[in-house]
Structures are given as structure tokens and as C-alpha cells.
Amino acid sequence: MKxxxxxxxxxxxxxxxxxxxxxxxxxxxxxEFGRTExxxxxxxxxxxxxxxxDYFFEEKQNLRFDLYDVDSKSPDLSKHDFLGxxxxxxxxxxxxxxxxxxxxxxxxxxSLNSRTGKPMPAVSxxxxxxxxxxxxxxPEASGGVPGKKCGTIILAAEELSNCRDxxxxxxxxxxxxxxxxxxxxxxxxxxxxSNEDGTFTICHKTEVMKNTLNPVWQTFSIPVRALCNGDxxxxxxxxxxxxxxxxxxxxxxxFTTSYRELARGQSQFNIYEGGVxxxxxxxxxxxxxxxxxxxxxYVNSGTVTLLSFAVESECTFLDYIKGGTQINFTxxxxxxxxxxxxxxxxxLHYMSPYQLNAYALALTAVGEIIQHYDSDKMFPALGFGAxxxxxxxxxxxxxxxxxxxxxxxxxxxxxxxxxxxxxxxVQLYGPTNFAPVxxxxxxxxxxxxxxxxxxxxxxxxxxxxxxxAQTKEAIVNAAKLPMSIIIIGVGQAEFDESPAPxxxxxxxxxxxxxxxxCPNLPPCSHGGAGRR
Length: 532
Fold this sequence. Notes:
about 525 residues; Immunoglobulin-like; C2_domain_sf; calcium-dependent phospholipid binding; 30 strands; 10 helices; phosphoprotein; C2_dom
């Protein structure tokens, strides 16, 4: 939606059109993504057309919105009057209150073609999902003065909610065919989703039940999108096998069903070796086609019964953000001597007047993404592995801004400033201990566990951890808390001894996503180790 656009028509109001552009990750070139409809004779249009954009939390997805007053039916934008533009990132929209962002429209001094007055396809340093609404506002005005405010654009984002359901079900079988010569069968089920081209893709396999013809399998859960790709009437094929140690499992039979049929509740399916018929009463047969062809009196190879079926909607990361969850971002920087003397150009901490060092690059890359999900943009910044003035005490948990009571810095620029000041005052030392900063953030996360806050700890280091046992213990203790740990390795050291395996078994997606307000974040702690 837009408000108070420039009025470029002499005898009526503007006929606005909005064009959305996305920026390439590699070449940084702007590409047109889509256009809204034209709304006649208004300076405050509410556009109906929505843009469906893939959303990647871990990427900085730059967007540009250009507004035009349409003067003809020509698709050539140079034929129409330029009203203004706005830049933002998709994360900026998603992270705003209610996923609704308001930005001023401007005519940039460096983005216009001097001859035509139209935007140049140049790279902007501006900043998906369903772009739910576009609205503009702005005073009636004339002209297009570079840098002048030309109204307001209001952007809203909403996650597409199709197929976020997770189905939980349990099956049992009765009177399955006996396949083992000296004992009963060892049956298991294999579920297949049908594809558009008539083929099938495996989507689930149950555990093996040993030595029984009447198995009761454990309850299992599967995303509905994996089971039927959102088509409730799409065929689901289930094959029944007798497990063999050598991998040559014996085929007992199969039956077909659909998500819609399963959702009706308890049903019984007859197993056939090669085909299934489902009776109105919900009873299908497991059929073996070879047996059916050879034996006139063949009925089936047993029955499979659906004991229970339930569906729950899965909360996603966006659910928590829209529900008001705040991301608390903390950074911890390695100040050990292995980084080299900061005054030397070979040091990883060297502050060149021409470019960011490895630590600043890593901090900026992650911080630019996460900062939009923190409303106050105040980020605690810690250092570890340095001797502090005036007594030379070694610390593995010192505030970069020097404030023990409040280590928070204002924005990513504030962290960088505090980092640069610390390099001038502390002495690089060692060892490389992670446990203190992990415990520091864990204490904060433990204080608020009602789903309103989620902590992210970014550790930037140049080498192998010295306190591996203590770090593993700290991570295990924090595993139940609403927090994640990101480790970025810089320099040329080997990072094979990363503690990632210590908590990999508890890894979960970042705090879920979706549209409803979720009362609690899932207890998860996950990390990723990388090198820049």
C-alpha cells in the first residue's frame, strides 16, 4: 500500500503502479520480480496483487520497490513517470512488528538516469514470503527532486500456510502371509507418495517387528507435504515386506489409500500382492498379484488396520516472530594470541583503513541478517582469551564496551566500534575457552522461557577449543533452553575438533515458524561451524 504519492497528472491524480525488484546474490544486479496492477486516479493506492517470494532466514535478500504513474498501456517503464522508490530486505519486513514495514519513498540522487529521470539498473546498498499488501502515502506534489521524500510505502509479509501440518498415525496388521521357513515373518511397512508422472517416491519406512504375523508398529509422525504434497486425494501406496538379513526382503503385499481417507480415522485395509481395493466400510486388502493370478481361491495376504490418526499444525520460525518473539543476539570474539599482533598486517585482527578484517566481515555478515529480528538493536558483545588492564587479568568473558553491568552495543556498527576500541586496550593472550561465553548466554536464556525471547550466540574464533570438555558440558546444560550457537572459524587453522557433534543430536530448526502465537519455543540448541 502507498500513501501520499507525487501527483504527476495535470488534470487528475496519478495512476500508480508498483514494480518489485530482487537483487542477485552473486552479481548484485537488480532483476524485475513482478508488477502490481494499475490503480487509477489516486495518491493513496492499496494494491491487491501479491508477490510470492522464497524466504531464507540465513540470507540477506535485498528488495527494491519502484513507483510509477502510468500514462499509457506500454509495458516500457521509461514511458511512464517515476514517482519514487524504496529499498529494504525481506528480513527487515518479516522482523518488523506484525511483519509490517513502513518506508519513505525517495528519488535517489545517484540512482536516476540524468537524461530520462528514470531509475538506473545500478546496484543499491538498500537492503519473501507472500508480500501481502502494498500501500503508498504522500502529499500532493510535483517535480522529482533527487533525495526528496515522495510519500510512503507500507509493506506486509505473511507466510504461506499450506502444508504445515504434521500427521501422526499408528498401524497394526493381522494374519499376514508367512514368509520364513523356520519361523514367522518379520514385517515392516514402506509408504510411497505418488508423483504427477505416475511414479512413486518413498516417504516413510516403519521399524521391523520380529517373528510375528500380527504386528503392531510404533506411532510415527510425518509432514503432510511429504505424504501427499498437499493433495489430499493423491494416491498413497503402502507395501508390506518380510525383513531378511541379507537385504532381499520378501514382498508380502500392498494396498493404496489417500490422506483424505486416512484422516477419516480408524480403517482396515486388506493387503494384496499387487493391487488394492478399498471397500466403502474402509476395509482394503493387501494383495499379491502373482498369488492372485495363480490361485483362484486367493483372498488376500492379510489386513492392515489404522489404529490412530491425528494432525497438528507445525509452528514455524515466522509464527514466533509474528507472535512477538525477540531474537537476542550476542557475539563473542576470540582475542587469543594465535590471531597475531593486531599492529601487523598478517594478523587476523589487523585494522586496515581500506577493508574489514576477517572478524569484522564475519560479524557483519551474520549481524546484518539477525539485527532485523531484534526490536531495540542492542547487542551484547563479549571477548575471550585476553589480558585486561590494569592488572593483566586473563578473562574469557569481558564486555567489549568495558561496561560489566551492560555489555550491549547499539547495532552492528556499535559492536564494531567496541571491538576496535578493545583491540587498542587489551593484550591478546589465551587459551581459547568457549565455556564461559556459552554459560553467559545460557544464563540469560534461562531467565526467560515463556517463548517471548530466543537467544543466538555467535562465536568467532581462529583456532581449536582449549576447554573442549567444559564447552561440551555447557552446551549439554543449555540444550533445553531457547538458544542457538553459531561458530564461525577464521584463518587457516583446522577446525575438525569443533564441538558441533556434542550437540548435533539435539539440533532442531531455529525457533519454528508460522502465523499463530505459539506459547513456548521448542527446546533446542543447534550450532554450525564454518570458516571465512
